[in-house]
Amino acid sequence: MDYLIPDDGAGGYRDYDEVSYAFTLPSAFTDGAGKAFVRLVYQPTTKHYVEIREQANAGKSDRGAKLRATWEATGKAAPFVVAELTTDVTLVGGTLPDPAAGGRAA
Predict the structure, then answer these.
(1) SS3 letters for 69-106?
(2) Choosing a second label site near 95 at 20 to 30 A (CA), which of 25, 36, 51, 81?
């Protein structure tokens, strides 16, 4: 399996991701100043992963069943907050200005 390991341009590797999101705001939002609150949440082990491991080990060993029991006994790997950010924003024409476009609305 090939893995993409981004080059940071300085001989090292980038250990983060940059992601842009687009979404539609409710019509109650009007142009002007406001605040945006963003929360990054991480779940270390998902139900899907546990189910796949359990199925892969069925009839071979009890490791899948042990994983499920441990996962359930420890709160099902409840998601936790990694980072939070609150920032001032200005809504222009129903969209947030795109910093990459020099602050013009996208």
Answers:
(1) HHHHHCCCCCCEEEEEEEEEEEEECCECECHHHCCCEC
(2) 81
